[in-house]
Amino acid sequence: MTTSKIDLLEWAMAPDGVPSESMHRLAQQLLGHDVSGVEVIRRGSNLVLKDTAETTVFRVQHVCRSREVEENLQLVASLDSAGAPVVAARNERAAKDGSVVVTAWPKGLPAGTTDQRALGATLNALHDITPPAALPTVDVRARFEERLTGLDADVPVDIVTALSKHADLAVTALEESLASGSVLLHGDAHIGNLVWLRDSARFIDLDDLCTGPREFDLAPSLVSYHRFHRDDRLWSDFRAGYGDDPDWELAERLTVVREATMNTWLATLWAYDSAAQTELLHRIDTWDTDWKDHDPWRPI
């Protein structure tokens, strides 16, 4: 097994669910004290864990990403110092061994589905921050290529075809939007990446910070409204929270980027998550259908 293909969950947790010795060791390096236990929050290309004391979140990534992880720690720290509504890491260094790189972050209180006004306002505040000159322009092509080429062989051909088609549409839509202006983007701005910490709403999961049209960050909330919750009050709250008058037609065109991002990620779970399989089949069947004419998508 190569380092880049190591199973992150197997690295972090013993078969009985107890954290591995390696996980304990790197967590101690980051925090300076023992961690009694950890629980899985999310499994995907990254592994996200929390300590059982509910104070720290650990992000476990393949060691081949060490350089970008360390650069991201410095970037987030600088944005935090500049007043950006982000959660900075507990320290500006990562812990790593020959297989993984681990970072530690304060655990905030997750925002609820009704916190849409806070999401909009926090997103507006982020967009007002002057982006560092070194930040790249938003680009999703490489992510789609990596996910699609790495899919399990058992993923049906018709699903792969639909994912590839919409990924191409997403790349085209995004490239056409770049002339509309550029701001600091979160890159994955949805309610699940908003937490309450130190009495304010802040963004987490900051791997995708970049620059580009602000409508790119607004599209996830539009997708959530159309495809998932369909609650007019929540959508009105988000728009009121954001405040400014963005180009909602552009945001609509960019929804395919968000949808392709979600659905290619869902496809990566095919081999070990039957619920993800069922939901992906539903999304593929309804993807090109008007959202008012199909049953809502379900979050996974």
Automatic annotation (TrEMBL):
SUPFAM superfamilies: Protein kinase-like (PK-like). Residues 50-249 form the Aminoglycoside phosphotransferase domain. Transmembrane segments: none annotated. Pfam families: APH (PF01636). It comes from the Bacteria. This is Phosphotransferase.
